[in-house]
Amino acid sequence: MNSLLGSLLLLIGVVSCKHLPKDEEVCAVLLGNELVEEIAGYKSVTDEILRYVLEGDFKHQTYNGLAKFVDKFGPRPSGSETLEQSIDYMIQLTRDEGITDITTEELEVPQWTRELEQVTLLEPRVKNIAVFGLGRSVSTSPEGITAEAIMVNSFDDLDSLADSDVKGKIVIYDAKFVSYGVSVRYRTEGASRAAARGAVASLVRSITPFSINSPHTGAQNYDNNYPKIPTAAITLEDADMLRRMYDRGEKIVLNIKLISKSDTKTSRNTLIDYKGTESPEKLVIVSGHIDSWDVGQGAMDNGGGIFVSWAVPVILKRLNIKPKRTIRSIFWTAEEMGLIGAADYANKHKNENNNINFIMEADEGTFAPLGLGVGGTQEARCIIAEVLKLFKSINASTLVEQNAPGSDISLFTNSGIPGASLYTENSKYFWFHHTAGDTMNVENEHELDLGTAVWTAAAYVIADISIDIPR
Amino acid sequence: MNSLLGSLLLLIGVVSCKHLPKDEEVCAVLLGNELVEEIAGYKSVTDEILRYVLEGDFKHQTYNGLAKFVDKFGPRPSGSETLEQSIDYMIQLTRDEGITDITTEELEVPQWTRELEQVTLLEPRVKNIAVFGLGRSVSTSPEGITAEAIMVNSFDDLDSLADSDVKGKIVIYDAKFVSYGVSVRYRTEGASRAAARGAVASLVRSITPFSINSPHTGAQNYDNNYPKIPTAAITLEDADMLRRMYDRGEKIVLNIKLISKSDTKTSRNTLIDYKGTESPEKLVIVSGHIDSWDVGQGAMDNGGGIFVSWAVPVILKRLNIKPKRTIRSIFWTAEEMGLIGAADYANKHKNENNNINFIMEADEGTFAPLGLGVGGTQEARCIIAEVLKLFKSINASTLVEQNAPGSDISLFTNSGIPGASLYTENSKYFWFHHTAGDTMNVENEHELDLGTAVWTAAAYVIADISIDIPR
Questions:
Q1: What are residue B375's DSSP bridge partners?
Q2: Which of B262, B293, B320 is the last residue in one of the domains?
Q3: Per the CB < 8 Å rule, is A441 touching B237?
Q4: Predicted-complex ipTM score
């Protein structure tokens, strides 16, 4: 196989000036006819799953189950009783399906609770500034911090300022949204980088391309080398207004009151196993995180991911479809506080890492599925691409390469375990992400059915094919 | 002319089975070549105006002026000191242009100030319900009203219920958005129609097709035949959640606290005249309302309308273009409280109604202009359609027929005075309408330039052509 691959790569090298070989050509050689035919042979089973979800008894069950769950519990922040109740509820829902191979693993999680958040523009005019504190921000005094604010477009912009321009000031990061990956650094690192220059607080333009005066919360990480300063997100609208005032030379004075409470509580990762018939020790993991931010309802982030992952063992059991490897559905806890649950699992199960054949997480929206975002070797991607061909009828055959698919599972894929995220038509995902607008209104019955079908059928094929996904 | 018209109409009657005559064919006959050529002859002047706004000294001045205004004052609710300060500011801005023919007309306006608005879902779970009280809603007691809620989709739905189903309950109107005109009745009439059935309070699904958990405020009218009950708007998201709970048979209990203060203050309509050279007594009015709701910044509703209307005399004066009739730019006050300023003007000037040649208001957004929405006779529309042909180069030549164009000016057009609104690409207007998201972020520099250019040039031509706009 290796020498064949060498010849192929040589051939690719020769012809690449004229036309780059398509992934498909490479994959054909890498996989060989037998495996391609084997995967294509799953069509009758995957079609059965699609029919069951799209037209059969499971039709709209993901949406309805999710709506009932979200309406019942609402936000499920790390450390809250509601989160634990919602975990109990999902366990009972699973037991009701006759699935009993359920494990919970306890761990300590942070609880960060907002009590008062109020930012007021004092100069050049009095105006309430809509705001959400960022995760684990320290509190101000009850009177708050009153200080002059400066606007910066970037870390470079901040670094170019004299110490005297920053010391004692509130730094407002006003970087326009480029992509989540690029722009989120101002949220996650902004406070400490401002503190490093002597700022007394920092505000960040919400990480979104669109707003109806909606602030977006999210995690941030203090660097222990610098003082911890209060930090919060403001809306695009207020950031733009403050920028205009600043550019006109007007002095901006703000009062920032951010009061929160921090604690540590016990939570749980939840593992639901659907045992493999031939290699039960080998795992295909499907997952989502059950905790959410406190400001919305946690429908999109990540109730949808929980429900499509919960559906995998449920649907396979109902249809009596039994894969060779074990499918493990995991509900991570405390993701929003920094992948706390996933890190605990990775640590407790580090000796079993070799047994994770493939790991999947649906945490980028459960909109209409287009395929999977896959991390792994070329050969691994070729296999998944072949699996995705089974979903041509519902236009979900696209494979996009992702270095770190998913959120929690990046802890695993970063160490070489192949994995995938549910890749969906999520162009509006960040409009609602970490806002009060993360509600059932973002979800759609049919799109959730499509996502459930693809997620279940793909996990099944990967868990059943004759070869392990190579690393 | 009349017998020619008769022949034409007969001809139209004859051929109408095969193809309906186009407006253009009718207009060609109605207007005659001479007038068509006269209007076309304005192209050099209208092009001069377009160039001055789109490429010349006025480029981006509407956006910049509006931004400065909105940033300085923010919301300008009826009866507030801020509104009066913003009127003074606009008068000074006009004087700075060397325009001195400025009149203000005082009138009494309502002031309705929210002090506390808090709605809490108590059953089936505790949840804060985002809310904006509706204009002039009465207050609850400080402890609020705690009662069971019922959901209705329509007034018919409400009327079909037994008295015992409604009495003592909170009525929630959950009518899906069809169009503003159709759906707004649940906001304006909902409280009294619920009170008529014995309800103790009413809530209405916000009048919008889209939301990021954004409540939309707005006016409502109590019917004096029924008790005045507190009333407010909730978000699409909460309305849908409550609907799902209700449909599941869950009992919905809410606590509604709405505390506001009502007063009467003096405000002013502002009239800026650019005198006509031949018939100064004849008026072409351009207008917008300077008051806004308190919850946003009043940039779109209706700062944009104020600034494009302010620009008309300013640009004509700067370019030394002098129409035969007077152009009057009016900033109505207290529109949001129910066209209070416009009604006062209509009353004070009722003897001059015959002198209003044409009346225009830009209160449906200042997005990219597509043309004008016109109310009036067929002949009036034909003339305006001909004027709009002058704006083909910027794709703003569309005439749409509107029975009641504008908001304030409907008081005039309803009595037969021809008039127009600025017709724009405003498909997202109601996403932001009466929300905290009515800010400068909805406005665009180039689109405001286009609107300013069309508004100014159209008003000028109408004020200068040889014939009055027929009624």
A1: B419
A2: B262
A3: yes
A4: 0.94
